[in-house]
Amino acid sequence: MSHSDFAPDPLFDLSKKVFIVAGGSGGLGKGLVQALYERGARLAVCDLDEKSLATLSQSFSGILTAVADICDEASMDQIVQQTLTQFGRLDGGINAAGIIRPAAAFELDVDALRMSFEVNVVGAFNFSRAIARRLPKAGGRIVHIASVSSTVANVGYAAYASSKSALSHMVRVLAREWASSNILVNAIGPSMFNAGMAVNAVADPTVSQQALSVIPMGRFGQPEDLSGMAITLLSQAGSYITGQTIYVDGGRTLV
Ligand SMILES: NC(=O)c1ccc[n+]([C@@H]2O[C@H](COP(=O)([O-])OP(=O)(O)OC[C@H]3O[C@@H](n4cnc5c(N)ncnc54)[C@H](O)[C@@H]3O)[C@@H](O)[C@H]2O)c1
Protein backbone atom coordinates (compact mmCIF):
# COMPACT_ATOMS: atom_id res chain seq x y z
CA MET A 1 0.00 0.00 0.00
CA SER A 2 1.25 3.50 -0.80
CA HIS A 3 -0.14 6.98 -0.27
CA SER A 4 -1.66 6.94 -3.76
CA ASP A 5 -3.93 4.08 -2.64
CA PHE A 6 -5.84 6.50 -0.41
CA ALA A 7 -8.77 8.41 -1.91
CA PRO A 8 -9.61 11.96 -0.64
CA ASP A 9 -11.27 11.50 2.72
CA PRO A 10 -15.09 11.61 2.39
CA LEU A 11 -15.27 12.31 6.13
CA PHE A 12 -14.08 15.89 5.59
CA ASP A 13 -15.40 16.42 2.09
CA LEU A 14 -17.19 19.73 1.50
CA SER A 15 -17.24 19.72 -2.29
CA LYS A 16 -20.59 20.81 -3.75
CA LYS A 17 -21.86 21.73 -0.28
CA VAL A 18 -23.35 25.20 0.04
CA PHE A 19 -22.81 27.34 3.13
CA ILE A 20 -23.54 30.90 4.16
CA VAL A 21 -20.73 32.67 6.00
CA ALA A 22 -21.74 35.69 8.10
CA GLY A 23 -19.02 38.15 9.08
CA GLY A 24 -17.04 36.47 6.32
CA SER A 25 -14.95 39.50 5.46
CA GLY A 26 -13.59 39.96 8.99
CA GLY A 27 -10.23 38.66 10.20
CA LEU A 28 -11.34 35.16 11.21
CA GLY A 29 -14.18 35.09 8.68
CA LYS A 30 -11.80 35.49 5.74
CA GLY A 31 -9.73 32.55 6.98
CA LEU A 32 -12.87 30.43 7.23
CA VAL A 33 -13.98 31.44 3.73
CA GLN A 34 -10.58 30.41 2.38
CA ALA A 35 -10.57 27.07 4.21
CA LEU A 36 -14.07 26.10 3.02
CA TYR A 37 -13.52 27.41 -0.50
CA GLU A 38 -10.27 25.42 -0.87
CA ARG A 39 -12.23 22.29 0.00
CA GLY A 40 -14.74 22.90 -2.76
CA ALA A 41 -17.63 24.44 -0.83
CA ARG A 42 -19.82 26.97 -2.59
CA LEU A 43 -20.23 30.04 -0.46
CA ALA A 44 -22.48 33.02 0.11
CA VAL A 45 -20.75 35.59 2.29
CA CYS A 46 -22.50 38.41 4.08
CA ASP A 47 -21.04 41.19 6.18
CA LEU A 48 -21.63 44.84 6.98
CA ASP A 49 -18.29 45.85 5.49
CA GLU A 50 -18.91 46.53 1.81
CA LYS A 51 -15.29 47.29 0.92
CA SER A 52 -13.77 44.13 2.32
CA LEU A 53 -16.60 42.07 0.80
CA ALA A 54 -15.67 43.49 -2.62
CA THR A 55 -12.02 42.49 -2.06
CA LEU A 56 -13.14 39.03 -0.99
CA SER A 57 -15.23 38.48 -4.11
CA GLN A 58 -12.20 39.35 -6.25
CA SER A 59 -10.08 36.76 -4.42
CA PHE A 60 -12.57 33.89 -4.57
CA SER A 61 -14.34 33.60 -7.88
CA GLY A 62 -17.92 32.34 -7.84
CA ILE A 63 -18.75 33.32 -4.28
CA LEU A 64 -21.94 35.26 -3.70
CA THR A 65 -21.48 38.34 -1.53
CA ALA A 66 -24.10 40.51 0.11
CA VAL A 67 -23.95 43.50 2.41
CA ALA A 68 -26.30 42.44 5.18
CA ASP A 69 -26.84 43.15 8.86
CA ILE A 70 -27.12 39.96 10.88
CA CYS A 71 -29.36 41.83 13.34
CA ASP A 72 -31.97 42.27 10.64
CA GLU A 73 -34.12 39.17 10.32
CA ALA A 74 -35.43 40.06 6.85
CA SER A 75 -31.87 40.48 5.54
CA MET A 76 -30.97 37.01 6.80
CA ASP A 77 -34.05 35.54 5.08
CA GLN A 78 -33.02 37.36 1.93
CA ILE A 79 -29.45 36.03 1.87
CA VAL A 80 -30.81 32.51 2.36
CA GLN A 81 -33.17 33.01 -0.59
CA GLN A 82 -30.37 34.45 -2.75
CA THR A 83 -28.15 31.47 -1.89
CA LEU A 84 -30.86 28.98 -2.84
CA THR A 85 -31.51 30.84 -6.08
CA GLN A 86 -27.83 31.00 -7.01
CA PHE A 87 -26.63 27.55 -5.92
CA GLY A 88 -29.85 25.51 -5.80
CA ARG A 89 -29.24 24.05 -2.37
CA LEU A 90 -28.22 24.91 1.18
CA ASP A 91 -26.26 22.80 3.67
CA GLY A 92 -25.82 25.27 6.51
CA GLY A 93 -23.84 28.25 7.67
CA ILE A 94 -21.03 29.54 9.80
CA ASN A 95 -21.32 32.82 11.65
CA ALA A 96 -18.21 34.86 12.36
CA ALA A 97 -20.00 38.21 12.75
CA GLY A 98 -19.44 39.70 16.16
CA ILE A 99 -18.47 42.80 18.10
CA ILE A 100 -16.47 43.46 21.24
CA ARG A 101 -16.93 46.45 23.57
CA PRO A 102 -14.38 46.10 26.37
CA ALA A 103 -14.76 48.36 29.42
CA ALA A 104 -14.51 48.02 33.17
CA ALA A 105 -18.00 47.53 34.59
CA PHE A 106 -18.11 51.01 36.21
CA GLU A 107 -17.29 52.59 32.84
CA LEU A 108 -19.43 50.32 30.65
CA ASP A 109 -22.10 52.17 28.68
CA VAL A 110 -25.26 50.05 28.87
CA ASP A 111 -25.82 50.71 25.17
CA ALA A 112 -22.58 48.81 24.51
CA LEU A 113 -24.00 45.93 26.54
CA ARG A 114 -27.26 46.06 24.57
CA MET A 115 -25.42 46.26 21.25
CA SER A 116 -23.25 43.26 22.17
CA PHE A 117 -26.37 41.19 22.77
CA GLU A 118 -27.98 42.56 19.62
CA VAL A 119 -25.15 41.40 17.35
CA ASN A 120 -23.65 38.44 19.21
CA VAL A 121 -26.92 36.87 20.36
CA VAL A 122 -29.93 38.25 18.44
CA GLY A 123 -27.92 38.29 15.20
CA ALA A 124 -26.76 34.73 15.77
CA PHE A 125 -30.36 33.72 16.40
CA ASN A 126 -31.59 35.38 13.18
CA PHE A 127 -28.82 33.69 11.22
CA SER A 128 -29.55 30.27 12.71
CA ARG A 129 -33.30 30.37 12.24
CA ALA A 130 -33.23 31.81 8.71
CA ILE A 131 -30.98 28.92 7.65
CA ALA A 132 -32.70 26.19 9.69
CA ARG A 133 -36.07 27.05 8.16
CA ARG A 134 -34.80 26.41 4.64
CA LEU A 135 -32.55 23.38 5.15
CA PRO A 136 -33.50 20.21 3.28
CA LYS A 137 -35.09 17.17 4.96
CA ALA A 138 -31.63 15.62 5.33
CA GLY A 139 -30.76 18.46 7.74
CA GLY A 140 -27.65 20.61 7.89
CA ARG A 141 -25.05 22.32 10.02
CA ILE A 142 -24.92 25.65 11.82
CA VAL A 143 -21.71 26.84 13.49
CA HIS A 144 -21.13 30.03 15.44
CA ILE A 145 -17.85 31.58 16.49
CA ALA A 146 -18.25 32.07 20.22
CA SER A 147 -15.15 32.67 22.36
CA VAL A 148 -13.23 31.43 25.39
CA SER A 149 -15.13 34.34 26.96
CA SER A 150 -18.21 32.07 26.83
CA THR A 151 -16.69 30.48 29.93
CA VAL A 152 -13.66 32.54 31.10
CA ALA A 153 -14.45 35.62 33.25
CA ASN A 154 -11.96 38.07 31.71
CA VAL A 155 -11.91 41.43 33.51
CA GLY A 156 -13.38 44.25 31.41
CA TYR A 157 -15.47 41.87 29.32
CA ALA A 158 -18.89 42.13 30.99
CA ALA A 159 -20.61 42.93 27.68
CA TYR A 160 -18.63 40.60 25.42
CA ALA A 161 -18.35 37.63 27.77
CA SER A 162 -21.99 37.65 28.86
CA SER A 163 -23.14 37.81 25.22
CA LYS A 164 -20.78 35.00 24.17
CA SER A 165 -21.92 32.91 27.10
CA ALA A 166 -25.52 33.49 26.05
CA LEU A 167 -24.59 32.49 22.51
CA SER A 168 -23.03 29.22 23.70
CA HIS A 169 -26.10 28.40 25.73
CA MET A 170 -28.46 29.34 22.92
CA VAL A 171 -26.55 26.88 20.73
CA ARG A 172 -27.41 24.14 23.23
CA VAL A 173 -31.13 24.95 23.11
CA LEU A 174 -31.29 25.24 19.31
CA ALA A 175 -29.34 21.99 19.02
CA ARG A 176 -31.87 20.23 21.19
CA GLU A 177 -34.90 21.73 19.41
CA TRP A 178 -33.60 20.86 15.95
CA ALA A 179 -31.79 17.57 16.58
CA SER A 180 -34.71 15.48 15.35
CA SER A 181 -34.48 17.32 12.00
CA ASN A 182 -30.77 16.44 11.86
CA ILE A 183 -29.85 20.12 12.10
CA LEU A 184 -26.68 20.18 14.15
CA VAL A 185 -25.82 23.45 15.91
CA ASN A 186 -22.41 24.06 17.48
CA ALA A 187 -19.99 26.81 18.38
CA ILE A 188 -16.23 27.19 18.23
CA GLY A 189 -14.61 29.10 21.09
CA PRO A 190 -11.29 30.68 20.10
CA SER A 191 -8.83 32.25 22.53
CA MET A 192 -6.98 35.38 21.40
CA PHE A 193 -6.10 35.09 17.71
CA ASN A 194 -3.73 37.26 15.74
CA ALA A 195 -6.55 38.47 13.51
CA GLY A 196 -9.54 40.77 13.29
CA MET A 197 -10.70 42.38 16.48
CA ALA A 198 -7.63 41.21 18.44
CA VAL A 199 -4.82 42.50 16.20
CA ASN A 200 -4.33 45.67 18.24
CA ALA A 201 -4.19 43.72 21.49
CA VAL A 202 -1.68 41.27 20.01
CA ALA A 203 0.45 44.19 18.80
CA ASP A 204 0.47 45.85 22.23
CA PRO A 205 3.46 44.38 24.17
CA THR A 206 1.88 44.81 27.63
CA VAL A 207 -1.52 43.37 26.69
CA SER A 208 -0.03 40.58 24.63
CA GLN A 209 2.44 39.50 27.33
CA GLN A 210 -0.38 39.23 29.86
CA ALA A 211 -2.60 37.37 27.36
CA LEU A 212 0.16 34.92 26.44
CA SER A 213 0.85 34.17 30.09
CA VAL A 214 -2.54 32.40 30.27
CA ILE A 215 -2.24 30.47 26.99
CA PRO A 216 -0.39 27.25 27.87
CA MET A 217 0.76 26.71 24.27
CA GLY A 218 2.52 30.08 24.48
CA ARG A 219 1.33 31.52 21.18
CA PHE A 220 -1.68 33.32 19.75
CA GLY A 221 -3.96 31.46 17.36
CA GLN A 222 -3.68 32.10 13.64
CA PRO A 223 -6.82 32.11 11.43
CA GLU A 224 -5.85 28.72 9.94
CA ASP A 225 -5.93 27.20 13.45
CA LEU A 226 -9.75 27.44 13.27
CA SER A 227 -10.05 25.62 9.94
CA GLY A 228 -9.86 22.05 11.21
CA MET A 229 -12.71 22.43 13.68
CA ALA A 230 -14.87 24.40 11.24
CA ILE A 231 -14.41 21.73 8.55
CA THR A 232 -15.12 18.97 11.06
CA LEU A 233 -18.34 20.55 12.28
CA LEU A 234 -19.58 21.21 8.73
CA SER A 235 -18.65 17.82 7.27
CA GLN A 236 -19.51 14.16 7.74
CA ALA A 237 -16.80 14.06 10.43
CA GLY A 238 -19.12 16.04 12.72
CA SER A 239 -22.20 13.90 12.14
CA TYR A 240 -22.89 13.16 15.84
CA ILE A 241 -21.75 16.42 17.46
CA THR A 242 -24.40 18.93 18.49
CA GLY A 243 -24.94 21.61 21.11
CA GLN A 244 -21.25 21.96 21.89
CA THR A 245 -18.90 24.89 22.21
CA ILE A 246 -15.54 23.44 21.26
CA TYR A 247 -12.63 25.55 22.45
CA VAL A 248 -9.80 26.06 19.98
CA ASP A 249 -7.63 27.93 22.39
CA GLY A 250 -4.09 26.62 22.88
CA GLY A 251 -5.21 25.51 26.34
CA ARG A 252 -6.57 28.92 27.49
CA THR A 253 -9.62 27.39 29.17
CA LEU A 254 -7.38 25.07 31.23
CA VAL A 255 -5.93 27.98 33.21
N1 LIG B 1 -9.94 37.61 16.95
C1 LIG B 1 -10.01 36.96 18.10
O1 LIG B 1 -9.02 36.84 18.83
C2 LIG B 1 -11.30 36.30 18.53
C3 LIG B 1 -11.26 35.49 19.66
C4 LIG B 1 -12.43 34.86 20.07
C5 LIG B 1 -13.61 35.03 19.37
N2 LIG B 1 -13.62 35.84 18.28
C6 LIG B 1 -14.90 35.96 17.57
O2 LIG B 1 -14.71 35.64 16.22
C7 LIG B 1 -15.65 36.37 15.41
C8 LIG B 1 -14.86 37.10 14.31
O3 LIG B 1 -14.03 38.07 14.94
P1 LIG B 1 -12.78 38.75 14.20
O4 LIG B 1 -11.65 38.72 15.14
O5 LIG B 1 -12.63 38.22 12.85
O6 LIG B 1 -13.28 40.27 14.19
P2 LIG B 1 -13.59 41.23 12.96
O7 LIG B 1 -14.06 42.50 13.57
O8 LIG B 1 -12.43 41.27 12.02
O9 LIG B 1 -14.78 40.47 12.23
C9 LIG B 1 -16.11 40.60 12.59
C10 LIG B 1 -16.89 40.79 11.31
O10 LIG B 1 -18.27 40.85 11.66
C11 LIG B 1 -18.85 41.88 10.88
N3 LIG B 1 -20.04 42.36 11.56
C12 LIG B 1 -20.12 43.06 12.72
N4 LIG B 1 -21.39 43.34 13.01
C13 LIG B 1 -22.14 42.80 12.02
C14 LIG B 1 -23.52 42.77 11.74
N5 LIG B 1 -24.41 43.38 12.55
N6 LIG B 1 -23.94 42.13 10.64
C15 LIG B 1 -23.06 41.54 9.79
N7 LIG B 1 -21.73 41.55 10.00
C16 LIG B 1 -21.28 42.18 11.09
C17 LIG B 1 -17.79 42.96 10.76
O11 LIG B 1 -18.03 43.83 9.68
C18 LIG B 1 -16.53 42.11 10.60
O12 LIG B 1 -16.24 41.87 9.24
C19 LIG B 1 -16.38 37.30 16.37
O13 LIG B 1 -17.60 36.72 16.75
C20 LIG B 1 -15.47 37.37 17.57
O14 LIG B 1 -16.16 37.65 18.75
C21 LIG B 1 -12.50 36.48 17.84
From TrEMBL:
Domain of life: Bacteria
Molecular-function annotations in GO: oxidoreductase activity, acting on the CH-OH group of donors, NAD or NADP as acceptor
Ketoreductase domain: residues covered: 17-198
InterPro entries: KR_dom (IPR057326), NAD(P)-bd_dom_sf (IPR036291), Sc_DH/Rdtase_CS (IPR020904), SDR_fam (IPR002347)
Entry keywords, A to Z: Oxidoreductase
Coiled coil: none
Family per record: Belongs to the short-chain dehydrogenases/reductases (SDR) family.
UniProt protein name: 2-deoxy-D-gluconate 3-dehydrogenase
Taxonomy of the source species: Bacteria, Pseudomonadati, Pseudomonadota, Alphaproteobacteria, Rhodobacterales
